[in-house]
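Quick one: co-fold with MRU.
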Amino acid sequence: MESTAYQGLQSVIWSGSHLDLLDQRLLPEEIVYLSLVSAQDVWEAIRHLKVRGAPAIGIAAAYGVVLGSRDAAGEKSAWLQAARDAAAHLATSRPTAVNLFWALDRMTARAETLAASDLDLAGSKEALLQEAIAIQSEDEATNRLIGEHALTLFQDGMGVLTHCNAGGLATAKYGTALAPFYLALEQGISLRVFADETRPVLQGARLTAFELQQAGVDVTLICDNMAGMVMSKGWIDAVIVGTDRVAANGDVANKIGTYSVAVLAKAHNIPFYVACPLSTIDLNTPSGAEIPIEERSPEEITEGFGKRTAPAGVKVYNPAFDVTPNEYVTAIITEKGIIRPPFDVNLKALFADL
Ligand code: MRU
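Sure, here it is.
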């Protein structure tokens, strides 16, 4: 992989014997790597947001299948069953990001091919590990391409708003929505980024502001309810966000609050871009109505950071994601280029060309 100015923290590292995983719950205060040794460790890390962001969840889960099957002994069929069981368990960790299921399907399919091959058990285990490593390194290359395509949409001096964290921390490297900011830095293009803090668990404040500031990108943190104000001031020329799943018709699921930002962008005549790898596009889900939306615990809202901020026992609704209907989406930026409406036709064509 070519060397670049990007020096961000890596969220998932295969150590050779286990997974070193950056605990993203502790950022920006503490940089702590957890040592994960089992599929259950990975399940818990995904479930409790120690690793989060659609591509990073997929990468971690791929290694989870390796960890969950590596102790199998005897017949290769027992190893295959262990891999399948680990994948089935990991698939229950979170429901919305399709990259999780994409990575698990890819790992299971590879294990099936290996189980039917002439390779012995040790060789098959090693080849399955190589598949997880490939998923991770392909994500890095993919994100760089996404960044290159996205950067063609921005000019020097522009203000760009983003929501949640679709950066290096959420992926193997660079991020999706944040990739163009890192590439702009390399090329001396100056962009002003506005990061929504992203209630309730503050991925924008804790992660996006952190990684962009570390890299030297001009970033300004705002509360979610300030997006309309900064748009009305004329400070925002474009919005770019990541996504957890794009439906076949171009509806986009992303972190809760994204839909509001898209509506505000339309009201202010500001383009609303979505950046993602092909592995986030799910042609099997016809529209946003069929995307499963995760609901998380009320405590994220009532006492998210250790201090109670609402009366005990109050009713809470806490969906982790929302769906932005395709009519609000100006373009979807993938490693294969910039896709514009009609999304139902153009997303399908993207896969037909592969
Ligand atoms: O709950 P999270 O932190 O996993 O939500 C993450 C997002 O919504 C990201 O925007 C999305 O996964 C894209 S990451 C490149």
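If it helps, The two ends are 23 Å apart (CA to CA).
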